[in-house]
Protein backbone atom coordinates (compact mmCIF):
# COMPACT_ATOMS: atom_id res chain seq x y z
CA UNK A 1 0.00 0.00 0.00
CA UNK A 2 1.27 3.42 -1.03
CA UNK A 3 -0.14 5.23 2.02
CA UNK A 4 -1.50 4.14 5.42
CA UNK A 5 -3.89 6.80 6.52
CA UNK A 6 -5.59 6.94 9.90
CA UNK A 7 -8.95 8.71 9.71
CA UNK A 8 -10.40 9.43 13.14
CA UNK A 9 -14.15 9.85 13.59
CA UNK A 10 -14.83 8.03 10.33
CA UNK A 11 -18.07 6.56 11.62
CA UNK A 12 -19.54 10.04 12.11
CA UNK A 13 -21.22 12.37 9.65
CA UNK A 14 -18.36 14.10 7.80
CA UNK A 15 -15.85 11.35 8.58
CA UNK A 16 -17.97 8.74 6.81
CA UNK A 17 -18.02 10.84 3.64
CA UNK A 18 -14.23 11.33 3.83
CA UNK A 19 -13.64 7.60 4.39
CA UNK A 20 -15.94 6.68 1.48
CA UNK A 21 -14.20 9.14 -0.85
CA UNK A 22 -10.68 7.96 0.08
CA UNK A 23 -11.47 4.22 0.01
CA UNK A 24 -13.12 4.46 -3.42
CA UNK A 25 -10.77 6.97 -5.02
CA UNK A 26 -7.46 5.53 -3.79
CA UNK A 27 -7.39 1.71 -3.93
CA UNK A 28 -3.63 1.91 -3.23
CA UNK A 29 -4.17 3.61 0.13
CA UNK A 30 -4.98 1.64 3.25
CA UNK A 31 -7.65 3.58 5.13
CA UNK A 32 -7.90 2.85 8.84
CA UNK A 33 -11.01 4.28 10.43
CA UNK A 34 -10.47 4.81 14.17
CA UNK A 35 -13.65 5.62 16.05
CA UNK A 36 -14.94 5.09 19.59
CA UNK A 37 -18.53 4.72 18.34
CA UNK A 38 -20.10 7.26 20.65
CA UNK A 39 -23.79 8.07 20.17
CA UNK A 40 -22.74 9.96 16.99
CA UNK A 41 -20.70 7.17 15.43
CA UNK A 42 -22.52 4.61 13.35
CA UNK A 43 -20.60 2.06 11.26
CA UNK A 44 -23.75 1.53 9.20
CA UNK A 45 -22.82 4.88 7.60
CA UNK A 46 -20.07 2.93 5.83
CA UNK A 47 -21.83 -0.30 4.97
CA UNK A 48 -21.05 0.22 1.27
CA UNK A 49 -17.27 0.25 1.86
CA UNK A 50 -16.84 -2.00 4.90
CA UNK A 51 -15.84 -5.01 2.77
CA UNK A 52 -13.34 -3.06 0.63
CA UNK A 53 -9.84 -4.61 0.72
CA UNK A 54 -8.24 -1.23 1.55
CA UNK A 55 -10.53 -0.48 4.53
CA UNK A 56 -10.07 -1.34 8.22
CA UNK A 57 -12.04 -0.34 11.30
CA UNK A 58 -10.65 0.04 14.83
CA UNK A 59 -12.95 0.78 17.74
CA UNK A 60 -10.67 2.97 19.82
CA UNK A 61 -11.06 6.07 21.98
CA UNK A 62 -8.60 8.79 20.90
CA UNK A 63 -7.91 9.52 24.58
CA UNK A 64 -6.58 5.98 25.12
CA UNK A 65 -2.88 6.51 24.49
CA UNK A 66 -1.91 2.83 24.57
CA UNK A 67 -4.62 1.82 22.12
CA UNK A 68 -3.73 4.70 19.79
CA UNK A 69 -0.02 3.71 19.95
CA UNK A 70 -0.94 0.15 19.08
CA UNK A 71 -2.86 1.22 16.00
CA UNK A 72 0.00 3.47 14.82
CA UNK A 73 2.45 0.59 15.24
CA UNK A 74 0.28 -2.16 13.82
CA UNK A 75 -0.49 -0.30 10.59
CA UNK A 76 2.66 1.87 10.39
CA UNK A 77 0.44 4.90 10.02
CA UNK A 78 2.07 7.59 7.88
CA UNK A 79 -0.62 10.25 8.07
CA UNK A 80 -3.70 11.25 10.04
CA UNK A 81 -6.91 12.98 9.05
CA UNK A 82 -8.40 13.88 12.41
CA UNK A 83 -12.17 14.37 12.57
CA UNK A 84 -13.15 12.60 15.81
CA UNK A 85 -14.80 15.09 18.13
CA UNK A 86 -17.77 15.93 20.23
CA UNK A 87 -19.53 18.19 17.75
CA UNK A 88 -22.86 19.51 19.01
CA UNK A 89 -22.98 22.99 20.60
CA UNK A 90 -26.10 22.26 22.71
CA UNK A 91 -24.45 19.17 24.23
CA UNK A 92 -21.35 21.25 25.01
CA UNK A 93 -23.50 23.60 27.06
CA UNK A 94 -24.81 20.64 29.09
CA UNK A 95 -21.49 18.79 29.46
CA UNK A 96 -18.39 20.87 28.66
CA UNK A 97 -16.03 18.30 30.20
CA UNK A 98 -16.83 15.71 27.53
CA UNK A 99 -15.73 18.30 24.96
CA UNK A 100 -12.48 19.13 26.74
CA UNK A 101 -11.75 15.43 27.06
CA UNK A 102 -12.24 14.34 23.46
CA UNK A 103 -11.53 17.53 21.55
CA UNK A 104 -8.57 18.75 23.58
CA UNK A 105 -7.04 15.73 25.35
CA UNK A 106 -7.92 13.35 22.52
CA UNK A 107 -6.27 15.61 19.94
CA UNK A 108 -3.25 16.01 22.21
CA UNK A 109 -3.00 12.22 22.57
CA UNK A 110 -2.95 11.77 18.79
CA UNK A 111 -0.36 14.53 18.38
CA UNK A 112 1.85 12.98 21.03
CA UNK A 113 1.73 9.53 19.44
CA UNK A 114 2.33 10.96 15.94
CA UNK A 115 5.35 12.85 17.32
CA UNK A 116 6.75 9.72 19.02
CA UNK A 117 6.39 7.67 15.86
CA UNK A 118 7.43 10.20 13.23
CA UNK A 119 9.96 12.49 14.91
CA UNK A 120 12.12 9.89 16.61
CA UNK A 121 15.43 10.91 15.05
CA UNK A 122 14.90 8.94 11.86
CA UNK A 123 15.01 10.74 8.54
CA UNK A 124 11.99 12.94 7.83
CA UNK A 125 9.41 11.09 5.72
CA UNK A 126 7.59 13.33 3.22
CA UNK A 127 4.43 11.24 3.63
CA UNK A 128 3.97 12.23 7.25
CA UNK A 129 1.08 14.62 7.81
CA UNK A 130 -1.23 15.41 10.70
CA UNK A 131 -4.34 16.97 9.15
CA UNK A 132 -6.67 18.50 11.74
CA UNK A 133 -10.27 19.14 10.70
CA UNK A 134 -11.74 22.13 12.51
CA UNK A 135 -14.59 24.59 12.37
CA UNK A 136 -15.24 28.25 11.56
CA UNK A 137 -16.82 28.55 15.02
CA UNK A 138 -13.33 29.11 16.52
CA UNK A 139 -13.45 32.65 15.08
CA UNK A 140 -16.51 33.56 17.16
CA UNK A 141 -19.44 35.52 15.83
CA UNK A 142 -19.87 38.22 13.17
CA UNK A 143 -22.30 41.13 13.12
CA UNK A 144 -24.27 41.96 9.98
CA UNK A 145 -21.02 42.70 8.11
CA UNK A 146 -17.64 41.02 7.79
CA UNK A 147 -16.20 37.63 6.95
CA UNK A 148 -13.76 35.20 8.62
CA UNK A 149 -10.35 34.84 6.98
CA UNK A 150 -7.45 32.60 8.00
CA UNK A 151 -6.02 35.50 10.00
CA UNK A 152 -9.19 36.34 11.90
CA UNK A 153 -8.72 36.39 15.67
CA UNK A 154 -9.75 33.29 17.61
CA UNK A 155 -12.73 34.26 19.75
CA UNK A 156 -14.76 31.14 20.58
CA UNK A 157 -17.95 31.51 22.62
CA UNK A 158 -19.38 28.05 23.20
CA UNK A 159 -17.65 25.24 25.11
CA UNK A 160 -17.65 23.37 21.76
CA UNK A 161 -15.86 26.13 19.87
CA UNK A 162 -13.53 26.77 22.83
CA UNK A 163 -12.49 23.11 22.79
CA UNK A 164 -11.96 23.14 19.00
CA UNK A 165 -9.96 26.39 19.27
CA UNK A 166 -7.81 24.81 21.95
CA UNK A 167 -7.19 21.74 19.80
CA UNK A 168 -6.20 23.97 16.85
CA UNK A 169 -3.67 25.72 19.11
CA UNK A 170 -2.17 22.40 20.23
CA UNK A 171 -1.85 21.27 16.61
CA UNK A 172 0.00 24.49 15.69
CA UNK A 173 2.11 24.23 18.85
CA UNK A 174 3.30 20.74 17.80
CA UNK A 175 4.30 22.21 14.44
CA UNK A 176 6.05 25.25 15.87
CA UNK A 177 7.71 23.46 18.80
CA UNK A 178 8.54 20.00 17.45
CA UNK A 179 8.31 20.41 13.68
CA UNK A 180 5.37 18.04 13.32
CA UNK A 181 4.06 18.38 9.75
CA UNK A 182 0.52 19.65 10.15
CA UNK A 183 -2.26 21.31 8.21
CA UNK A 184 -5.60 22.65 9.53
CA UNK A 185 -8.86 23.46 7.83
CA UNK A 186 -11.75 25.42 9.34
CA UNK A 187 -15.07 24.75 7.68
CA UNK A 188 -18.53 26.24 7.87
CA UNK A 189 -21.76 24.31 8.68
CA UNK A 190 -22.15 21.06 6.74
CA UNK A 191 -25.35 19.33 5.69
CA UNK A 192 -26.22 16.16 3.80
CA UNK A 193 -26.90 12.44 4.30
CA UNK A 194 -25.81 10.64 7.53
CA UNK A 195 -25.88 13.72 9.77
CA UNK A 196 -27.07 12.87 13.27
CA UNK A 197 -30.62 14.18 13.75
CA UNK A 198 -29.76 16.51 16.62
CA UNK A 199 -28.42 19.13 14.18
CA UNK A 200 -30.83 21.63 12.66
CA UNK A 201 -31.37 20.23 9.15
CA UNK A 202 -31.91 16.49 9.82
CA UNK A 203 -33.80 17.21 13.06
CA UNK A 204 -36.25 19.48 11.28
CA UNK A 205 -36.74 17.18 8.26
CA UNK A 206 -37.63 14.38 10.66
CA UNK A 207 -39.91 16.61 12.72
CA UNK A 208 -41.73 17.87 9.62
CA UNK A 209 -42.26 14.30 8.48
CA UNK A 210 -43.59 13.32 11.91
CA UNK A 211 -45.53 16.59 12.23
CA UNK A 212 -43.67 17.51 15.41
CA UNK A 213 -42.90 21.10 16.45
CA UNK A 214 -39.93 22.92 14.91
CA UNK A 215 -38.08 24.72 17.74
CA UNK A 216 -36.39 27.78 16.21
CA UNK A 217 -34.03 29.38 18.74
CA UNK A 218 -34.63 33.09 19.44
CA UNK A 219 -36.04 35.01 16.49
CA UNK A 220 -34.48 32.75 13.83
CA UNK A 221 -32.28 35.65 12.66
CA UNK A 222 -28.98 33.81 13.19
CA UNK A 223 -27.05 33.23 9.99
CA UNK A 224 -25.04 30.16 9.00
CA UNK A 225 -22.99 29.48 5.84
CA UNK A 226 -24.03 26.00 4.62
CA UNK A 227 -21.86 23.62 2.61
CA UNK A 228 -22.83 20.23 1.18
CA UNK A 229 -20.81 17.57 3.00
CA UNK A 230 -19.35 16.03 -0.18
CA UNK A 231 -17.92 19.43 -1.14
CA UNK A 232 -16.18 19.46 2.26
CA UNK A 233 -14.85 15.93 1.71
CA UNK A 234 -13.43 16.99 -1.69
CA UNK A 235 -11.74 19.97 -0.05
CA UNK A 236 -10.21 17.69 2.60
CA UNK A 237 -8.87 15.38 -0.13
CA UNK A 238 -7.26 18.34 -1.92
CA UNK A 239 -5.77 19.88 1.21
CA UNK A 240 -4.49 16.49 2.37
CA UNK A 241 -2.61 16.02 -0.91
CA UNK A 242 -1.65 19.56 -1.87
CA UNK A 243 -2.06 21.83 1.13
CA UNK A 244 1.08 23.58 2.35
CA UNK A 245 2.54 22.26 5.61
CA UNK A 246 1.85 24.49 8.61
CA UNK A 247 -0.97 26.35 6.86
CA UNK A 248 -4.64 26.88 7.65
CA UNK A 249 -7.34 26.77 4.96
CA UNK A 250 -10.85 28.12 5.41
CA UNK A 251 -13.63 26.17 3.69
CA UNK A 252 -17.09 27.62 3.12
CA UNK A 253 -20.11 27.46 0.90
CA UNK A 254 -20.42 31.19 0.23
CA UNK A 255 -24.03 30.45 1.05
CA UNK A 256 -25.45 32.38 3.99
CA UNK A 257 -28.95 31.66 5.24
CA UNK A 258 -30.95 33.06 8.14
CA UNK A 259 -32.22 30.10 10.17
CA UNK A 260 -35.86 31.06 9.69
CA UNK A 261 -35.50 31.26 5.89
CA UNK A 262 -33.73 27.90 5.85
CA UNK A 263 -36.47 26.36 8.00
CA UNK A 264 -39.12 27.65 5.57
CA UNK A 265 -37.18 26.16 2.64
CA UNK A 266 -36.98 22.84 4.50
CA UNK A 267 -40.72 22.89 5.18
CA UNK A 268 -41.59 23.63 1.55
CA UNK A 269 -39.21 20.99 0.18
CA UNK A 270 -40.26 18.28 2.64
CA UNK A 271 -43.97 19.03 2.18
CA UNK A 272 -43.61 18.82 -1.60
CA UNK A 273 -41.68 15.54 -1.48
CA UNK A 274 -44.27 14.07 0.89
CA UNK A 275 -47.12 15.11 -1.42
CA UNK A 276 -48.43 17.66 1.09
CA UNK A 277 -49.45 21.24 0.22
CA UNK A 278 -46.18 23.20 0.00
CA UNK A 279 -45.72 25.25 3.17
CA UNK A 280 -48.61 23.77 5.14
CA UNK A 281 -46.24 22.60 7.91
CA UNK A 282 -45.00 26.14 8.59
CA UNK A 283 -47.61 26.00 11.36
CA UNK A 284 -45.19 23.67 13.21
CA UNK A 285 -42.63 26.50 13.65
CA UNK A 286 -42.21 27.60 17.28
CA UNK A 287 -39.89 30.38 18.39
CA UNK A 288 -38.32 29.07 21.59
CA UNK A 289 -35.85 30.35 24.19
CA UNK A 290 -32.54 31.23 22.55
CA UNK A 291 -29.45 29.06 22.89
CA UNK A 292 -27.11 30.52 25.55
CA UNK A 293 -24.25 32.45 23.92
CA UNK A 294 -25.81 31.88 20.48
CA UNK A 295 -23.41 33.13 17.78
CA UNK A 296 -25.26 35.54 15.49
CA UNK A 297 -23.53 35.01 12.18
CA UNK A 298 -20.79 32.94 10.56
CA UNK A 299 -19.42 33.71 7.09
CA UNK A 300 -16.18 32.38 5.74
CA UNK A 301 -13.80 33.56 3.05
CA UNK A 302 -12.40 30.48 1.30
CA UNK A 303 -10.52 32.37 -1.44
CA UNK A 304 -7.14 31.01 -0.25
CA UNK A 305 -8.33 27.44 -0.90
CA UNK A 306 -9.97 28.46 -4.15
CA UNK A 307 -6.91 30.35 -5.47
CA UNK A 308 -4.18 27.98 -4.24
CA UNK A 309 -5.82 24.62 -4.82
CA UNK A 310 -8.62 25.40 -7.29
CA UNK A 311 -11.45 24.19 -5.03
CA UNK A 312 -14.95 25.56 -5.19
CA UNK A 313 -18.29 24.24 -3.93
CA UNK A 314 -20.08 22.25 -6.61
CA UNK A 315 -23.47 21.46 -5.12
CA UNK A 316 -26.02 24.23 -5.46
CA UNK A 317 -27.84 24.75 -2.14
CA UNK A 318 -31.41 24.12 -3.28
CA UNK A 319 -30.24 21.01 -5.14
CA UNK A 320 -28.30 19.86 -2.04
CA UNK A 321 -31.31 20.42 0.23
CA UNK A 322 -33.54 18.51 -2.17
CA UNK A 323 -31.05 15.58 -2.20
CA UNK A 324 -30.76 15.68 1.57
CA UNK A 325 -34.51 15.74 2.23
CA UNK A 326 -35.00 12.86 -0.24
CA UNK A 327 -32.24 10.89 1.48
CA UNK A 328 -33.79 11.26 4.95
CA UNK A 329 -37.26 10.44 3.68
CA UNK A 330 -35.96 7.30 1.94
CA UNK A 331 -33.79 6.13 4.80
CA UNK A 332 -36.25 5.97 7.65
CA UNK A 333 -34.70 2.68 8.80
CA UNK A 334 -31.35 4.45 9.30
CA UNK A 335 -33.15 7.30 11.05
CA UNK A 336 -35.13 5.13 13.44
CA UNK A 337 -32.06 3.00 14.24
CA UNK A 338 -30.09 6.15 15.00
CA UNK A 339 -32.78 7.77 17.07
CA UNK A 340 -33.35 4.59 19.08
CA UNK A 341 -29.60 3.94 19.49
CA UNK A 342 -30.19 0.31 18.51
CA UNK A 343 -27.19 0.18 16.14
CA UNK A 344 -24.87 0.92 19.03
CA UNK A 345 -25.80 -2.24 20.85
CA UNK A 346 -25.40 -4.27 17.68
CA UNK A 347 -21.99 -2.91 16.74
CA UNK A 348 -20.68 -2.79 20.30
CA UNK A 349 -21.27 -6.53 20.52
CA UNK A 350 -19.59 -7.02 17.18
CA UNK A 351 -16.44 -4.95 17.78
CA UNK A 352 -16.03 -5.35 21.54
CA UNK A 353 -15.97 -9.10 21.13
CA UNK A 354 -12.65 -9.06 19.22
P1 LIG B 1 -20.09 13.74 14.37
O1 LIG B 1 -20.49 14.09 15.77
O2 LIG B 1 -21.11 13.34 13.38
O3 LIG B 1 -19.02 12.55 14.41
C1 LIG B 1 -17.98 12.51 15.36
C2 LIG B 1 -17.35 11.12 15.31
O4 LIG B 1 -16.26 11.08 16.26
C3 LIG B 1 -18.32 9.99 15.70
O5 LIG B 1 -18.17 8.91 14.81
C4 LIG B 1 -17.87 9.61 17.11
O6 LIG B 1 -18.09 8.24 17.42
C5 LIG B 1 -16.37 9.92 17.03
N1 LIG B 1 -15.81 10.19 18.37
C6 LIG B 1 -16.30 11.04 19.31
N2 LIG B 1 -15.53 10.99 20.42
C7 LIG B 1 -14.52 10.11 20.16
C8 LIG B 1 -13.41 9.65 20.89
N3 LIG B 1 -13.16 10.07 22.15
N4 LIG B 1 -12.57 8.75 20.31
C9 LIG B 1 -12.80 8.30 19.05
N5 LIG B 1 -13.86 8.69 18.31
C10 LIG B 1 -14.71 9.59 18.86
O7 LIG B 1 -19.25 15.00 13.87
P2 LIG B 1 -19.17 15.67 12.42
O8 LIG B 1 -20.24 16.64 12.28
O9 LIG B 1 -18.95 14.62 11.40
O10 LIG B 1 -17.80 16.49 12.58
C11 LIG B 1 -16.54 15.90 12.29
C12 LIG B 1 -15.44 16.91 12.52
O11 LIG B 1 -15.64 18.03 11.68
C13 LIG B 1 -15.39 17.46 13.96
O12 LIG B 1 -14.04 17.59 14.32
C14 LIG B 1 -16.07 18.81 13.86
O13 LIG B 1 -15.58 19.69 14.82
C15 LIG B 1 -15.68 19.22 12.45
N6 LIG B 1 -16.62 20.12 11.77
C16 LIG B 1 -17.96 19.83 11.71
C17 LIG B 1 -18.82 20.67 11.02
C18 LIG B 1 -20.29 20.36 10.89
O14 LIG B 1 -21.05 21.19 10.36
N7 LIG B 1 -20.76 19.20 11.29
C19 LIG B 1 -18.32 21.84 10.42
C20 LIG B 1 -16.95 22.11 10.51
C21 LIG B 1 -16.11 21.25 11.18
P1 LIG C 1 -26.68 23.39 14.54
O1 LIG C 1 -27.12 22.49 13.44
O2 LIG C 1 -26.73 22.89 15.96
O3 LIG C 1 -25.21 23.88 14.16
P2 LIG C 1 -24.27 25.04 14.86
O4 LIG C 1 -24.82 25.39 16.18
O5 LIG C 1 -22.96 24.35 14.96
O6 LIG C 1 -24.27 26.19 13.89
O7 LIG C 1 -27.55 24.71 14.48
C1 LIG C 1 -27.61 25.52 13.32
C2 LIG C 1 -28.39 26.78 13.67
O8 LIG C 1 -29.75 26.42 13.96
C3 LIG C 1 -27.86 27.47 14.91
O9 LIG C 1 -27.99 28.89 14.73
C4 LIG C 1 -28.80 27.02 16.01
C5 LIG C 1 -30.12 26.81 15.29
N1 LIG C 1 -30.99 25.74 15.82
C6 LIG C 1 -32.34 26.02 16.11
O10 LIG C 1 -32.83 27.15 15.91
N2 LIG C 1 -33.13 25.00 16.59
C7 LIG C 1 -32.64 23.76 16.83
O11 LIG C 1 -33.41 22.86 17.31
C8 LIG C 1 -31.27 23.48 16.52
C9 LIG C 1 -30.68 22.11 16.75
C10 LIG C 1 -30.48 24.52 16.01
Report on the structure:
This protein is an alpha/beta fold and 354 residues long. It has a single domain, classed as NAD(P)-binding Rossmann-like Domain (Rossmann fold). Helix content is 44%, strand content 17%. It has helices spanning 13-25, 65-75, 89-94, 96-118, 159-178, 200-210, 229-242, 259-273, 303-309, 317-330, 332-340, 342-352; strands spanning 3-8, 29-35, 55-59, 79-82, 129-135, 182-187, 189-191, 214-217, 223-228, 248-251, 256-258, 285-288. The strands form 3 sheets. It has a 7-stranded parallel β-sheet, with helices on both faces. The chain has a 3-stranded mixed β-sheet with strand order 7-9-11. The protein has a two-stranded parallel sheet with strand order 8-12. The longest helix has 23 residues, at 96-118. It is globular. The mean pLDDT is 95. The structure holds nicotinamide-adenine-dinucleotide and thymidine-5'-diphosphate. Residues 9, 11-15, 35-38, 40-41, 61-63, 83-87, 102, 106, 133, 135, 164, 187, 189-190, 196 line the site of nicotinamide-adenine-dinucleotide (NAD). Nicotinamide-adenine-dinucleotide binds at residues 9, 11-15, 35-38, 40-41, 61-63, 83-87, 102, 106, 133, 135, 164, 187, 189-190, 196.
Amino acid sequence: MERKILITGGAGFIGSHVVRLMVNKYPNYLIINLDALTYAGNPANLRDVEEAPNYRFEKVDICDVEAVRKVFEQYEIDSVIHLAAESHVDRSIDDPFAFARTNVLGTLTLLQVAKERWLNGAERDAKHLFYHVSTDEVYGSLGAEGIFTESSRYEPHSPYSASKASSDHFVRAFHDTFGLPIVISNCSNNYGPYQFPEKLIPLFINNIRERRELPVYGSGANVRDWLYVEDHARAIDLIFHRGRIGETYNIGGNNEWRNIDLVRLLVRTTDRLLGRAEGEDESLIRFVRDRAGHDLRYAIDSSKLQNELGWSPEVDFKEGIERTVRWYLHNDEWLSAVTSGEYRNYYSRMYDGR
